[in-house]
Amino acid sequence: MGTTGQTDGMGQFADLLGALDVTDPGFIADPYQVLAALRDATPIVHDERTDQWLITRYADVHEALRDRRLGRSYSHRYTHAELGRPDPDPRWSNFHEHERWSLLSLEPPDHTRLRRLVTKVFTPRAVEALRPSIEQVAAELLGECVERRRFDLIADYAQPFSMAVICAMLGVPRGDTRQLLDWSHAIVKMYELATPDDMKVAADRAAGEFIAYTRDVMRAKRRRPDTSLVSALVAVEDEGDCLSDAEITSTVMVLLEAGHEATVNSLANGMRAMLLHPDEWARVTSGAVTPRTAIEEMIRWDAPLQLFERWVLEPGVEIASTAVPIGAEVAMLFGSANRDPRRFVDPTRFDAARGDTAHVGFGGGIHFCIGAPLARLELEVSVAALVERAATVELAATPRYQPTFVLRGLEALHLAVE
Ligand code: HEM
Fold first, then answer.
1. Confidence at 343, pLDDT banded by 50, 70, 90
2. For every residue of the chain, which 3-state class applies, written as one string?
């Protein structure tokens, strides 16, 4: 529905949109020039291929994140038919079940109720208390890597590190890491703009198995309560009726998924950037720039999450002075916003000392990343561990990006330590 301006938008910016081709390896390798050209040309454009309105500039993305007339979902207000959208494809019912009660799919009042419970666990103070145990995991894993001299920062360090941290918080056995990673990698393919059917089949199967696994974990915590987050959520449910089994399942799954995918990609994208700019890495290893400061630039410069969507829930919405009809889907281009020269001085420059926390890497508004304090701590501890144990690290091979756009991450980051 709502085709106002579409033909104009697509026609006028057809070439620029054509270059934004998520199937083009050249675009995946470096999307930023294409994004810059689109951002210079227009703050918003309708993309007929995905039927999404792309928002390109920082100020408009910042505003859209906080605009309560836009929602992560519309099902709390409208039926699919009312908004002219198709019913969810029954072939992917496990996937839909898995995110039905995810914080990322909810709007108030359900979102407020669930988020309040989870927030308690993720306060900066509660997260800071984890620092010693997180530092220990980092030291152990990186120690093994450095002994070998050559290692893949992603497979050998970042993945087992982030999984160990989130599994410990949730109370899930660390030994299940491989299986959890496999499920998670399969499921997140659903968030890409063009996912082939065979990948959707794999994602749905993974979601089904992951749901069954999560239910088992919950049963185990009921039998044997402990201090973990899953135990706490189960206790809340058992004490009253404010949390259902389905809600806990979705919450645990989204935390396990969100708890490592973006963190792993931030560290690897960011360390690639550092090592391509050895002078900047030298500022960190010399102590001139702290890891805490450096990680903000790592997230801003090569955002691990390039795009998030919202639905227009009310009539009369204008974005960057363009009318966007009710029922339309808008896509906020975070990677583009984070390099908008209207907000960041010399935005293409990787400046380890920039330390600007106003990037939109963690989103904003009511869906602002609940795991941001944990992600920041994990990244800080990892960079500090690299400085301490592997300051002379270099790229051992040219890193390649995975062929995905929304989740931006490398296949591997092979490093060598002198
Ligand atoms: C550097 C790493 C991370 C990045 C860049 C990141 C980024 C984001 C972004 C952009 C959003 C907002 C999405 C939107 O507005 O629609 C978000 C939400 C969320 N993130 Fe993260 N995240 C990271 C790490 C984590 C971690 C470690 C966890 C949990 C342990 C986590 C859990 C969540 C959850 C549950 C939400 C949904 C919050 C809500 O909708 O209320 N994230 N994240």
1. very high
2. CCCCCHHHHHHHCHHHHHHCCCCCHHHHHCCHHHHHHHHHHCCEEEECCCCEEEECCHHHHHHHHHCCCEECCCCCCCCCCCCCCCCCCHHHHHHHHHHHCCHHHCCCCHHHHHHHHHHHHHCHHHHHCCHHHHHHHHHHHHHHHHHHCEEEHHHHHHHHHHHHHHHHHHCCCHHHHHHHHHHHHHHHHHHCCCCCHHHHHHHHHHHHHHHHHHHHHHHHHHHCCCCCHHHHHHHHHHHCCCCCHHHHHHHHHHHHHHCCHHHHHHHHHHHHHHHHCHHHHHHHHCCCCCHHHHHHHHHHHCCCECEEEEEECCCCCEECCEECCCCCEEEEEHHHHCCCCCCCCCCCCCCCCCCCCCCCCCCCHHHCCCCHHHHHHHHHHHHHHHHHHHCCCEECCCCCECCCCCECCECCCEEECC
Digit-coded pLDDT (tens) for 229-241:
899 888 876 666 5
Considering the four listed CATH numbers 1.10.630.10, 3.90.470.20, 3.40.50.1970, 2.40.50.100, the one that applies to the domain covering 6-416 is 1.10.630.10
Ligand 1, atom 39: nearest CA belongs to which residue? 367
Q: Ligand 1, closest atom to CA 310?
A: 16
Decide: 259 in ligand 1 pocket, CB within 6 A.
yes
